[in-house]
Amino acid sequence: MKFIRPILTLTALLLIVAVASFWWNRPTKADMADYVPADSLIYIEINSINDIINAINKTDVWKAVSPSIGLSNQPNTTSHLLAARLGLAPIQAVLASRAQMALVIVGVNTAEQDDLLRVKPEVALVVETHTSKWRMKSAAIEDIKHLAEFAYGTSACTERSADVDYVECLEPKGSRKIIGAIDGTIMIVGNSERAVDSCLAVRRGQRPSLHTDVEMVQLRRQLRSDSNLSFGYVSQKNAARLISLGGPLLLGRAPDDRQLERLLNDSASKILRSIAWTSSTKSGAIEDHYQISLDPDVIKHLGPAFQTSSFDDDFWKMVPASFRSVTLYRSNSPQAAWSSLDSAVASKLDAVSSVIFATLLKSGLSGYGIEDPRKLITVLEAPVLTIRPTLGESSLLLARVKDEEAARRELTNAFLKDGKTQVLNGIQSDPDRAKEFTAVFLNGFLLLGKTESVMVYLAQLRNNEVLGTDRAKTLTQVVNEDAGVVTYNNDRNSIINTIAALSRIGGRRISDAELAAISDRISQFEVSSTESTLNSNGIERRTKSAFGQFGSLISFAQADSANSIER
Which domain does 174 fall in, by range? Predict the structure, then answer.
């Protein structure tokens, strides 16, 4: 008996030490906004990699395709996750279970090359590993090298140590690179020194963090980011900055006119507030929820653009069965909707700024050959659709005609004056390729667009390759009837690329036979939907798709981060 008490005491002490060790190793959630610059253009935070992995595993598309490529769709067990979070697992499992991430765009560079305007965002990924440096450093270095290989192919990587440990990987041919910095429990990976250094400066207290942005903190709480898979944010200042960068491109000018940029920036800041979004799982898919906050006066003027009414669904017989995207504008009065956009802008801007923004609005219709949309819109009625065909780069505008005689008169006055356009009748029309734009009257509808795209569209109609009401019901059954604007995107290529990328991340490449099997299985999941409504804060958008923004981020990582825009 005299040996039992010491044994029990020793056992109790060992248990206390074990519990204390587990408690000490249990990671405490960090606020990732503390790690990134306050002036970041775009901010996205992900607080649990495992939650995202589990969410993808539970999507309908992953359940359908994973068996055909030999990948599991079963989440890790609770015991495995607990062991990993306590540090009692291989290092990669520990990092996956503990890591929090923040992805930021800290700036945008532009340069001309071969008559192309190349736009390159400066991106940084900050990872709080919640794991001591001595244990995670080697794994972090390998992850950085694998990321470089994923993005650029076989890369030449070098390591150096200063105040922090650096890894720099260069693409085989070219100037692009990935730079990684390891500092304590933090890993920062960027595509430029400036991107990495800006985050390191925040860590050292040399520049303010995003956590100082009061509106970001409020929106994160309002959108309940803790219960979602991710949270994203663009401040009012940076939302205006993005408009000033993109606006000149819509006007056909390079974003290097400082005076124009300043004008657009100042004007946009009077209309736009912040932009925030979250991602979550819903009905076997990923839903991205966006809130685009606007000035209260602008919201009041936009009301008519989002006032919808019911109309016959026979327009679906005019929609091609295959398309890249279809956007349905459900406003009960196209004329009132356009006027509301004009009045919303005019209510906040001076005369010069209003003219600039009015030009931007018109540029959205110039691709259909419409230089002055005001009069033509008066002879159209709901629904109005824009269609991006599977072939060609340009879009088509399709609308029901309220007054065909008046529509022909307006087309004659505004559409035909430069000799580059033609007006035709019926499905059997044979457009002249020499004409840049074509208008066709089709059974009570008017079609407008580039001639090459109109020819493809007419061929689809003649071959009866149309969507039809039955398939349309499948698409529309998940959409809010009050949505003023609804967009359907064909995500087939994006889904296949995301699955292939996820497989590569998992350590294997998908064969051609497996790609064919995937293609056969995803037909019922390939179309995503985005609905836009107006609320008291501005415009709310909800996108339901196979992989959501996570698919876009994965594609971004493996593709060229410098996008080319032809001028």
Answer: 28-54+83-212
